[in-house]
Design a protein that fits this description.
Layout lengths: L8 E3 L2 E3 L4 E9 L3 H4 L3 H9 L5 E9 L5 H9 L5 E6 L4 H9 L6 E4 L11 H4 L1 H4 L4 E5 L9 H17 L12 E4 H7 L4 H5 L11 H11 L4 E5 L14 H24 L5
């Protein structure tokens, strides 16, 4: 099977690239005013501009109600290959899909606005592209600096339950730092249950879409490489809603979604 995408070669720690766009970085945005004030987009820009490959950065807004849009516009106006997409409020998967549909790179990187996984950790993922991997995902480990105790304990419980039902070989499905070959994610993303249900979304609806996405990629026969990355909770956002109550409600919903994915799989829905 042939593709029109350019596949890079790794030479002396640098990618030798053609004039085709190699990487699309997608950063979802919902009420990220506090994180944007840290100049996170400048960090992304300053890192990528030194690379030998061509890139684009797509900030996909999810109907932010704070000052995020104005801050993004102001910060990227002089950044080459950065653009903003404005969407109605639909949740994180909705914002990601809006950007995936217009991404032009051979590969697509998901990256959270808070940069809890620093953008330079991309260098940990890229070498595995040489080895033929089309999906390379970041893994945060269980330490997770700056995480409150309830979230550390919750992540361990979530991982154990999720591995019992799905993707037993993957430790961290929820890290927001993931690299995909673009044609794969464009094909699979709209098949997620999130889009089939078309629920009305309130707040920053994250869901366990990552689990279903990776499960579908695995079902398609693609190998998934999990790579350790640096991670420290740097999210300063206060207008997404948050705290223990949000975490508990979100965790319950995510576990229910995992069960639904498992049931769908048993019924042959994904075959």
């Amino acid at each position: 099977m042939s593709y029109n995408y350019y596949i890079p070669f790794y030479l002396d720690t640098h990618f030798f690239m053609s004039k085709k766009l190699f990487l699309s970085v997608i950063i979802p945005c919902y009420n990220e005013e506090e994180n944007l004030k840290k100049e996170v987009l400048r960090e992304v820009h300053d890192f990528l501009k030194k690379k030998k490959f061509l890139f684009e950065v797509i900030i996909s807004d999810d109907g932010s109600s704070d000052n995020s849009l104005n801050l993004v516009k102001k910060q990227i106006k002089n950044f080459k290959n950065f653009r903003l997409i404005k969407n109605r409020h639909g949740g994180k998967p909705f914002a990601l899909w809006a950007a995936i549909k217009v991404a032009k790179g051979a590969y697509t990187l998901f990256c959270d606005m808070d940069l809890s996984t620093p953008i330079f950790q991309l260098d940990n993922l890229l070498p595995f592209v040489k080895g033929g991997y089309k999906v390379v995902i970041g893994s945060r480990g269980v330490g997770r600096d700056n995480f409150p105790l309830y979230r550390r304990m919750g992540s361990i419980i979530f991982m154990s339950l999720r591995k019992f039902f799905l993707l037993a070989e993957i430790n961290d499905t929820q890290c927001g730092f993931k690299l995909f070959r673009t044609d794969i994610v464009k094909n699979i993303f709209p098949k997620l249950e999130f889009f089939r249900k078309q629920q009305r979304v309130k707040g920053w609806n994250v869901t366990s879409f990552d689990v279903e996405l990776l499960h579908l990629i695995k079902k398609q026969g693609e190998a998934i490489k999990e790579v350790s990355v640096e991670w420290k909770d740097l999210d300063l956002s206060i207008s997404k809603g948050g705290g223990l109550s949000r975490y508990i409600n979100e965790s319950k919903e995510m576990l229910m979604q995992i069960m639904r994915v498992k049931i769908n799989d048993i019924k042959g829905f994904y075959d």
